[in-house]
Specification:
The complex is a heterodimer of chains A (176) and B (147). Chain A has 176 residues and is mainly beta. Chain A is built from three helices and twelve strands; from the N terminus they run βββββββαβββαββα. In chain A, the strands form three sheets. In chain A, strands 1-10-2-3-12-11 form a six-stranded mixed β-sheet. A four-stranded mixed β-sheet of chain A has the order 4-8-9-7. In chain A, strands 5-6 form a two-stranded antiparallel sheet. With 147 residues, chain B is mostly beta strands. Chain B is 3% helix and 45% strand. Chain B is built from one helix and twelve strands. Chain B has one helix at 71-74, and strands spanning 3-4, 17-24, 27-32, 36-41, 46-47, 57-61, 64-68, 84-90, 93-99, 105-109, 124-130, 133-138. In chain B, the strands form three sheets. Chain B has a six-stranded mixed β-sheet with strand order 1-10-2-3-12-11, with no helix packed on it. In chain B, a hairpin with a 2-residue loop joins strand 11 (124-130) and strand 12 (133-138). Chain B starts with a strand and ends in a 9-residue tail after the last strand. The chains are: A mainly beta (176), B mainly beta (147). The A-B interface holds A 27-28, 67-69, 109, 112-119, 122, 126, 128, 131-133, 135 and B 44, 46-53, 55, 58, 60, 63, 65-67, 69, 90, 92-93, 95, 144-145.
Chain lengths: 176, 147
């Protein structure tokens, strides 16, 4: 495993924003890196169980359904992003984690005002990624989703291997 | 990437309307040239999950990301041929539309040619008659707001 972090050396870390880039339903999304607690790369307990990491349960959030996208359940390389913000925890299944992207704050683009529906709350903005665009998810909105799936007790061991822990996100490739 | 019609004149009266006539799904529409930001080849749109009708994607133009107004879907038509990208100046920011491959044409309309648009399928500032067709002149500022 390797950690791939792109950083502009001339800028202080204070002016940089860090995002975990992942695909959901074949589209790029960016998670703020700070609330990301880790990434589960395999689910031993099945896709319906809430992942447990270090005895902490992360309730499953069906983000693909909320975004009206096809899910990534069938993918053998699917991962789960563990999130925590202000004591609220959740886990989001994604198709692939592309890695950690570190960019100057100025490169975080605003969502065009022509998007005037509920999506204004869904996204914090957009960032250029490869030849495409990644939508930056609003973590607060993501974590609003009520629990989905079965209740798993703390310490039950339903989660797979935790590849990463707070602040350090691991990528299996060098795409970003 | 524009053709000039025979009727287009450089020096026109102040009240004439210069419009760009283009096609979507074979249907002719016009937009005031003041509202046009450019015409280019259509790029690969990036779908954006959302709830805004007919604004469901963005396109990358170099370092810019612009929203796409799906005019064809709003008219229940399909773009024909290898599409072009029409960039328009919307009050909320530049926006693009996917149009037919037919090269848009510039026209100058005498004020006497301009009438109220009788249709309700697109927001229009007016229309003019060309043969049997009534061609709506799109109200760009209302695209995406009233449909």
């Amino acid at each position: 495993m390797n950690v791939q972090v792109k950083r502009s050396e001339s800028l202080s870390s204070a002016s940089l924003s860090r995002f975990v880039i992942a695909t959901i339903g074949g589209r790029y999304f960016a998670f703020d890196a700070e609330p990301v607690q880790g990434i589960v790369t395999s689910l031993e307990g099945g896709s319906l169980q809430d992942p447990v990491a270090d005895g902490i349960v992360y309730r499953t959030i069906d983000l693909a359904a909320r975004l009206s996208l096809s899910g990534d359940e069938g993918r053998h390389d699917a991962s789960v992003v563990l999130l925590e913000e202000q004591g609220i925890r959740g886990s989001v299944r994604v198709g692939k984690v592309h890695g950690l992207l570190e960019i100057p704050q100025a490169l975080l683009l605003a969502l065009p005002a022509q998007f005037h529906g509920a999506e204004q709350r869904w996204y914090r903005g957009m960032i250029l990624f490869e030849r495409s665009v990644a939508m930056v998810l609003n973590t607060t909105w993501v974590l609003e989703e009520p629990a989905v799936g079965v209740d798993v007790g703390v310490g039950r061991g339903g989660a797979g291997r935790i590849e990463t822990v707070q602040g350090v996100v691991v990528s299996k490739n060098d795409e970003c | 990437m524009l053709r000039t019609s025979e009727r287009f004149q450089q020096h026109t009266t102040r009240r004439s309307w210069d419009v760009l006539v283009f096609s979507v799904g074979g249907r002719r529409l016009a937009v005031k040239t003041l509202d046009v930001g450019g015409v280019s080849q259509w790029g690969e749109p990036v779908p954006v999950a959302g709830r805004t009708p007919f604004v469901t994607a963005v396109v990358r133009l170099n370092q810019m990301v612009l929203p796409v107004f799906d005019l064809a879907s709003s008219l229940r038509l399909s773009v024909q041929g290898s599409p072009l990208c029409l960039k328009v100046r919307h009050p909320l920011g530049d926006m693009v539309m996917c149009i037919d491959e037919e090269i848009p044409v510039l026209h100058t309309l005498h004020p006497s040619m301009i009438q109220n648009y009788r249709g309700t399928d697109v927001p229009a500032d007016g229309s003019y008659v060309n043969g049997l067709d009534e061609i709506p002149i799109l109200s760009v500022s209302r695209l995406g707001a009233t449909l």
